[in-house]
Model the fold of this input.
Amino acid sequence: MTTKKVLSVIALAVLGIILLIAIFTSWYTVDESEQAVIITFGVANETVTESGLHFKLPWPIQKAEVLSKETYSLQFGYNQNEQGEITSYDAETKMITGDENIVLADLIVQWKITDPKKYLFSSEAPREILHDATSASIRSIIGSSLIDDALTSGKAEIESETRDLLASLIDKYDIGISVLAVKLQDVELPNEEVRAAFTNVTDARETMNTKINEAKKYENQKRNEALGEKAAINSRAEGQKVSRVEQAG
Done:
């Protein structure tokens, strides 16, 4: 085979490879739960949200970056693998309350990609930004909360305030995501001894409140009985008075 023929075969092979690349990179699919951004020479163009088969210019001219439209979950302070095993990161979740007590607080942040272009190009690591903003938000809210609120009845308010603060931070960063919800998974004291002491104090407070309520209930009961007896005595006295007046007449 002559050199000319060899070159012709190589040229045909290269052309064939180019055609194959063009064919296989000129279409892409978008699922109902997905959205795609068309990128032309590194610049984001249109966002495709309709599901189905779509066509574009072949690589390397254009490429489609497919992203989910579903809700993501950020686990802050712990990680749960596919087997259900949980790894805690106490150093990440240790924070100080407004009355200078130390607690461990881990949570889940639910979020969505609302602007794919900004998510891909406004920052290099939007998930890291969300994680850091979550840390700043929960520390700020816990830092202005009392330990009793953090460990007992104030959790719902802490969740709400953390979500509002986190959402405002993410809006300022403008990275194409939206915070939907914040859910505290656990708020606890840093060691067993402190937890036991706090539990004893809480139990004693609940017992005291129960006794106070019982005493008030007993007091109200006796007061009502006394008032009832007084009313009965007054009624009998009034009846006797009327009877005597009638007899005297």
